[in-house]
Amino acid sequence: MLRRRNLLTTLLIALPWALLLTLWHQYPTTRYLSLLRKEADENVTAKALFNSTSLLREEGLSSCVRQPVAGAAPKVIRSYVYSRPPPWTDTLPTIFVITPTYTRPVQKAELTRLANTFLHVQNLHWVVVEDSPRRTNLVSNLLEKAGLNFTHLNVETPKSLKLGLSWMPSHTPRGTLQRNLGLHWLRDSFSNTQPPAGVVYFADDDNTYSLELFEEMRYTKRVSVWPVAFVGGLRYESPKVSPAGRVVGWKTVFDPNRPFAIDMAGFAVSIKLILERPQASFKLDGVKGGYQETSLLKDLVTLDGLEPKAANCTKVLVWHTRTERPTLVNEGKRGFTDPRVEV
Amino acid sequence: MKVKLKNVFVIYFLVSVIGLMYALLQLGQPCDCTQHLKSTSDLIHAKDKKLVQLQNEVKRLQARGKAPEPQMLPVIYVITPTYARLVQKAELVRLSQTLLHVKNLHWIVVEDSATKTQLVSELLAQSGLRFTHLHVETPKEHKRKESDPNWLKPRGVEQRNLALQWLRENRQLSDGGVVYFADDDNTYSLHLFDEIRSTKRVSVWPVGLVGGLRFERPLVEHGKVIGFYTAWKPNRPFPMDMAGFAVTLQLLLANREARFDLQAERGYLESSLLQSLVSIEELEPKAENCTKVMVWHTRTEKPKMKQEEQLQKQGLGSDPSIEV
Fold it and tell me: Per UniProt, where does UDP-alpha-D-glucuronate bind (chain B) (predicted)?
């Protein structure tokens, strides 16, 4: 009798645990948890592979991807890359880059190096809008020879606008009409046809963009944001991101209470959203310095609808560089150099 | 209830059964899986990206089979001296984006620094280019202070000389190649590198936005260089900018003493090297007899850090671990 009771007790102790263990292994939710753990490791692999899959590997080098150990020398990628540009694919969302530009001595140089950058980005469509009464030959030829998918537009900023705010030149919003024309062209082009999946980005011609930035913005659902270097008198301005991954404010010194205290280069909008809100555009009237971006974004999204990119806004992938105006002192009154040579 | 073993077992059994029932019920409930779904969808996107890239790689490999073998093209050695300042990373990033389009290019980056900085090391490793990373610090008496104007002392001299030394130690006369000195803030069009590659001794071309002019250029008659069209110090032996010429590797290896002169006066750096290598008649004019501008001497503004400086005084400066 005692033995049987002992057996029964042992069985009763073991049974619940045995049941739990068998069910745990079988149920799919628990597989999710192990997947998450594996995914955390896999993301590291994915990043390292992303750097190397677009390149060929030199013969002689080992073919396995070596992950950099923290503190060790960075992994060296040696390869030949001659993309010009990468062929269009139907699986990747399109990036429409709207660049306002105006004639000045460094214009061709700026557009040249910008084109050299864009030639690396897949599925990019460059919309160049000149501040000019006519499309200039300089820009037309440059765009045709570059080899990119492009659209060439132009609209002249009326002189009244240029002069009206000249008492505060640093705050004159520039490129407004040009960017609005770019948006207008987008809305026109896709009014009757199915718009492609994609995103719109406003890229000024003197900034510097890393290639990683374009991949960060590609999958924007509504509006995505990230840090920008050298704006607002700081090393970088960035959105304030809560631990939960939501944008809760702005890390800026210059007027941080703006609804969207962000630079033009710090956000991208999905095409779908642009087409959903046809009245959203940059405003000119009554727009103070620094509020240009707000004048567009307030009609598109609210603060908590923003998607933070660049590792929760901790990496700088775009720099608001400005090019010095070249001193052409030796040109003199009548011009020293041959004006027929394009610079 | 007395603390009998039997009671303990009963309580234990009841507790574990209740616990099991609770856990089983939990497993059956719909959970807030959006986090999992989001991360898995991101994973899918990343895999999609990779897939597309691999597909492109395959296409490129197939196309390569038809293109001429890149190793047959002479190597272009691009020597870039650089120094740490706010815009350094941005400049090197956009320069590398241009260089990445050029076949058979070897980038020699020489830092004005006592050690190899992490910023440049990582940038080079991820650039996808063939590179050599060197460093040499300009001695204090030759360095200009922050407040000095940029033309006061010649810059990048030791760095370029170190690169020349590296080439002389690591390359032989039988190796082909052309050497070009590319500063990190200039702008280069891709056609320029085609012109550079065809150099036989020393080739020259116009440079935009330099010398106070829209462009400076060599004067060419009947396919030969007969002079230079510049407004600033036109009596220099070679009145042109660093970005306006390229030298074949063979010429540099054959003349092992040719280098940039540290003591050279403002504007005479280029001449200090070229004097010992070539005469004006031997120069090869490129860029359609020096009528096209393919390189611009752009300069980048120093970014205004007024707010940053104010914050740092209060001890609230931006996170220095975030690289800019």
Answer: 81-83, 112, 155, 160, 183-185, 297-299
A110 tagged catalytic: no
Residue A34 contacts B, CB cutoff 8 Å:
no
Instruction: Quote the DSSP letter at residue B280.
Output: G
Q: What would the pLDDT profile of B157-215 be if each residue is shown by its tens digit?
A: 999 999 999 999 999 988 899 999 999 999 999 999 999 999 999 999 999 999 999 99
When CB atoms are compared, the residue of B20, B122, B301 closest to A20 is B20
Q: Residue B102: inside a domain, yes or no? A: yes
Within a domain: residue B131? yes
Q: Give Cα separations from B232 to A235, B212, B240, B285 (angstroms).
A: 36, 8, 10, 21
Q: Look at residue B284 and give its three-state secondary structure.
A: strand
**Helix, strand or coil for residue B46?**
helix
Relative to beta strand B284-285, strand B245-248 is unpaired
Is residue B146 included in any domain, yes or no? Answer: yes
State whether the Cα torsion A29-A35-A37-A39 is positive or negative: negative
Pull the structure tokens for residue B238: 């070679």
Counted domains in chain B: 1
Q: What is the CATH number of the domain that holds B258?
A: 3.90.550.10
pTM: 0.76
Q: Is residue B273 part of a domain?
A: yes
Q: Measure CB to CB from residue B17 to each of A16, A42, A80 and give the nearest one.
A: A16
Q: List the domain range (segments joined by +) for residue B259.
A: 70-203+241-279
Token pair of B39, please? 């991360």
Mutate to test the interface with B, among A43, A63, A208, A255 (most CBs of B within 10 A): A208
